[in-house]
Amino acid sequence: MDEFDLEVISCKSCKRLIEYADDVKENGRKAGYEKEEYWCKPVPSFGPINAELLIVGLAPGTHGAGRTGRPFTGDYAGELLYQTLYDFDMSNKSESLNNGDNLELKNARISNAVRCAPPNNKPTTEEVNNCSNFLIEEICMMKNLKSILALGGLAHRAVLRTMSLKQSEYPFSHGAEHELDGIEWKLIDSYHPSRYNLNTGRLNAEMFKDVFEVLKR
Ligand code: URA
User: Fold this and answer.
1) pTM higher than 0.85 for the full model?
2) Can you give the residue ranges of the Uracil-DNA glycosylase-like domain (predicted)?
3) Does the CB atom of residue 82 touch ligand 1 within 6 A?
4) How many CB atoms neighbour CB 173 within 10 A?
5) Which domains are delineated in the chain?
């Protein structure tokens, strides 16, 4: 773990999220995972800091990334994401099940707008704002950054906020490619690959692949 990761995992800014993590650790493990050591801390990003692509999700799922300690890992939402990264030759494996699986990303890094698992997957505005300094720091450290892929509207808004850009000038839309005023990297939007979006057909594998085709260009 590098210094940035240590800074992330020791964050105690959001009382509600710390209490929730403690409660999950004590009483809230999901059936089938009772014997697992839940992570229950802020989840650090995954992937090389010199990558050209940064993918920003919403927040760790309680029983996915909040359990395994790696973004989108052991999480339904990660299935399509990691499969697609593999299909585009950006990783060495198509699945991300746990933190000790030797999965490696190539030229891509995955992060979250909020790094602690929130109750009902819903962080408050204050929690998103509290976490925004980590995103700013991360973007500054990514010297080769060419694109940020925002997964969902909340991630899109969190990225714009780091650059103090107006939401009204860059509305979220699936597949959109935003050139940001005065900024070298582009912001690309996708619907979040959540269970809800996939089950309702708002997003499907083909639509997600199309976004990666845009990124590839
Ligand atoms: N897991 C994450 O790490 N982030 C998400 O947005 C969803 C699941």
Assistant:
1) yes
2) 44-212
3) no
4) 13
5) 3-216 (3.40.470.10)
